[in-house]
Amino acid sequence: MSHRLIRSRLELEGIELPEKILNQTLDVLTRHESIRGFQKRPLPKGVLKAILTAARSAPTSSNLQAYSIIVVTDEERKDRLATLSGNQGFIREAPVFLVFCADIYRLKYVTERQGYRFAAETLEMFLLAAVDAALALQNALVAAESLGLVSVPVGSVRNDPVRMSEELGLPDGVFALAGLSIGFEREGVRRGVKPRLPEQVTVHHEQYSTEHLEEGLAEYDRVMIERRTYDGRRVSIAGEPEREGVEYGWCEHTARRCTRPETIAASASLRENLRQVLEQRGFSFR
């Protein structure tokens, strides 16, 4: 079944907002689509600086600014990073690849510089740094798309954290959390804004509610099956035969991905020992 390319979530979900509150920011946010095909075309002068300035303007917990951004434009390094990140070709294509890192190295350095002992080796500090990095990434994404560019976040920079750290020269206390490819889209790669779970499933008022969970999941499954979203992308479970009579929609796809931690990554066991790697690299989870 063919589908007209829909470029806005407002149109996709039939949401009508008062015209007086519609603005360019909402337009950019609701039109986001992860694009995985880029032109071999450099960014115009000043664009990267604008994107990085927007990223650095993101909220940060207690002004600790526990993140760092690695800007990668060297073709050979992008090629190596693409290989480490599931061999994803779009990383090679895009003129810029930003790697957003959770960074407590700088906080340790400042604490010791001032003559104190760093004692914030906790799960909370890792979460704080991860959230700081994620907020900076989202700001960069929105800034890039507001300038007419396209982008795609890349979680697979976590596939091989040791080699990724070596390639980027990351000291202990710095962890590559996610990447962001930015550039001009290659013709024909858009697929339209992807449907999301219904609002009643992910948005709760005053308290968490499961009242509409089942009907929302069933509705979403129908949409994703109709769109044939998972054609050719089915997740196999080793040792289990294919189930008969089970429609393969978001629920079945998601459930299969969650049967083992390693199935979340592109290949088995890529991120299975992530906690151990993080502890070896200077993070703590007590």
UniProtKB/TrEMBL annotation:
Superkingdom of the source species: Bacteria
Keyword terms of this UniProt record: Flavoprotein, FMN, Oxidoreductase
UniProt organism field: Effusibacillus lacus
Gene Ontology MF, one: oxidoreductase activity
Name of this chain's protein: NADPH-dependent oxidoreductase
Species lineage: Bacteria, Bacillati, Bacillota, Bacilli, Bacillales
Domain spans labelled Nitroreductase: 31-183
Protein family: Belongs to the flavin oxidoreductase frp family.
Record-annotated membrane-spanning stretches: none
Pfam family for this entry, one: Nitroreductase
